[in-house]
Amino acid sequence: MAAWRWVCRPEVPSTSVLYGSLALFVSILHNVFLLYYVDTFVSIYKIDKLSFWGGQAVFLVWNSLNDPLFGWLSDRSFLSSPGAGSPITSPEVVLKRLGALSKNGPLFALSFLGFWVAWARPALQFPVCLCLYDGFLTVVDLNHGALLADLAVSAADRTRLNFHCSVFSAAGSLSVFLSYCFWDKEDLSRFRVFCVALAGLSALGFAAVSRLLSRRFRNLLQPGRGEAAGLRELSVGQALPQDQAFTVGQYLRQLSKHKNFMWFAAMNLVQVFHCHFNSNFFPLFLEHLLSDSISSSAGSLLLGVSYMAPHLNNLYFLSLSRRYGVYQVIQWLFMLKLVLSCAMLLAGPDHVYLLCVFIASNRVFTEGTCKLLNLVTCDLVDEDFVLNRRRQAASALLFGMVALVTKPGQTLAPLVGTWLLCFYTGYDIFERGPLRQALLVGEAAPEAAPEAGPREADGAPLRLGCFYMLVAVPIMCALLQLAAWSRFTLHGRKLQDIKSRRQGAQRGPLAELEAV
Fold first, then answer.
1. CA distance 405 to 226
2. I need a labelling partner for 390 at 20 to 30 A (CA). Which of 11, 91, 185, 215 fits?
3. From residue 258, how far is each of 255, 304, 399, 401 by CA, in Å?
4. Nearest by Cα to 379 from 365, 368, 392, 395
5. Contact call for residues 115 and 190 (beta carbons, < 8 A)
6. Quick check: is 143 in a domain?
């Protein structure tokens, strides 16, 4: 077992550490992108309003369609009947995912650099950069998320993988704090050098980690070891047989009958809406609820805490998930959101410190819930594999379908939020330039606090309306999510049965992640 001794050497990082480190190479770039790309095009490249919204419309269509498209292209071979081609083993699936990451990871880093140099007219550069960047980001995210379902089946091992992702994502957030030292609207030269360094680190990281993981799995497929022994160590084999090849229509009909997927998608749609609502209107809440009571540095600190804390707090949520199960932890978070929002509603808008705590905690707990949902999606991959007798789990495709159903929440968030503001205050946000610009910046770069709007608009009715928005949206979201989550049955004994049936179909107990 020379290969076994090689993969168990203490100097070689474990699979969970290598997998988690991939999240670092995404977050160091994506955080900076979110923070600066709108300000770059609006304030530096001077893009006009029509071109900006036109680019956003193109991006919205592309952003909604590319997840299921890339998921289908990645996993369509897994849905065909066993007789349609050679048998596919789990190490081969993992190698395919890692190959996609090794190629598209560096291209993702390269596409990140396209934002910071004016190489075309802003009206053209804006949608091209957005679509290229999001396309490569989607491929990376889909394959990284699918690996979570392909590398492990047990809840404990998947939680360990997600734990390392949270640690590395929190470390990646440091790029935001470093970026403040280099950002200068008058001269982008130092910032460009900083971005090139980040992109180089990300590209090298993707290449190196993908190579290490690929070598580990190729080692298990060496002909000299015998395929059977390698497969037993990885708990893989052939899934239950299928009768015929699959088409898109057949897959969609199967998915429509997958009740737990439908209830999860409904809950997750509300979750995506709430996450983006918090991001879109965070600057508005700071300006009209807290700007007269706290300093600008305190507001920046509140933004920074709300940005990094979800990654760190997720470590605690994952430890709870190991003990009580991810379903129960998510349910508790929904209940906590409802209780805190009702308590804030009763307390009123005049308690500044309570408002600070609530605004930060609302964002932290909401983002923390989002980071647990990948574990639930992986459980749905297991159920889809068992219910539809797949030859291999179609992980990337299911992640893509979840994204397709939930992406409309990103568009609904600013639309519903502006309607609520008008409903509560009679104030039309589109009639006043400064406040509209503040929300626009907040929508795409929630970490950057907007410039203060006209004080005459910041009267008591607007402040009270912002407060009611702040508490009403979480209350309604929590109620809807609790209703949908109560219909979700993939937990407890049923979940254990699904996992045992998947492992049984793949002939063997799951290997420990450190030994993969």
1. 43
2. 215
3. 5, 40, 14, 12
4. 395
5. no
6. yes
Assess if residue 515 is contained within a domain.
Answer: no
Please tell me the least confidently modeled range out of 34-38, 120-124, 356-360, 401-405: 34-38
Q: Where are the alpha helices (DSSP H) in 77-187?
A: 90-113, 122-151, 155-172, 174-179
Work out the number of other CB atoms within 10 angstroms of the CB of residue 213: 25
- CB distance 280 to 439 below 8 Å: yes
Q: How many domains does the chain have?
A: 1
Rounded-to-integer distance, Cα 115 and Cα 106, Å: 16
- The set of residues, in sequence order, having a beta carbon less than 8 Å from that of 500 and lying 6+ positions away, is none
- Is the separation of the CB atoms in 471 and 419 below 8 Å? no
Residue among 392, 402, 510, 310 nearest 93 (CA): 392
Q: Which helix (H) or strand (E) holds 208?
A: helix 189-220
Question: Which range of residues forms the domain containing residue 391?
Answer: 13-243+250-507
Distance CA 508, CA 506 (A): 6
- The residue assigned the tokens 């408002």 is 355
The CA distances from residue 71 to 59, 79, 97, 142, in Å, are: 18, 12, 11, 7
Q: What is the pLDDT of residue 429?
A: 52
> What is the pLDDT at residue 35?
75
Q: What is the pLDDT of residue 451?
A: 44
The reply to whether 512 falls in a domain is no
Q: Does residue 488 lie within any of the structural domains? A: yes
With both helix axes pointing from N to C terminus, report the angle between 352-387 and 155-172 in degrees, rounded to the nearest 10: 140
CA 76 to chain centre: 23
User: CA 30 → CA 133, 195, 258, distances in Å?
Assistant: 10, 11, 33
From the list 138, 94, 136, 26, the residue with the least C-alpha distance to 403 is 138
In sequence order, the 6+-apart residues with CB closer than 8 A to the CB of 340 are: 358, 361, 362, 365, 474
CATH assignment of the domain containing 329: 1.20.1250.20
User: Which residue type occupies 57?
Assistant: A
- What predicted TM-score, i.e. pTM, was given to this entire model? 0.75
Supply the mean pLDDT for the chain: 78
219-270 per-position pLDDT tens digit: 766 544 444 443 333 333 344 344 445 677 888 888 888 999 999 999 999 9
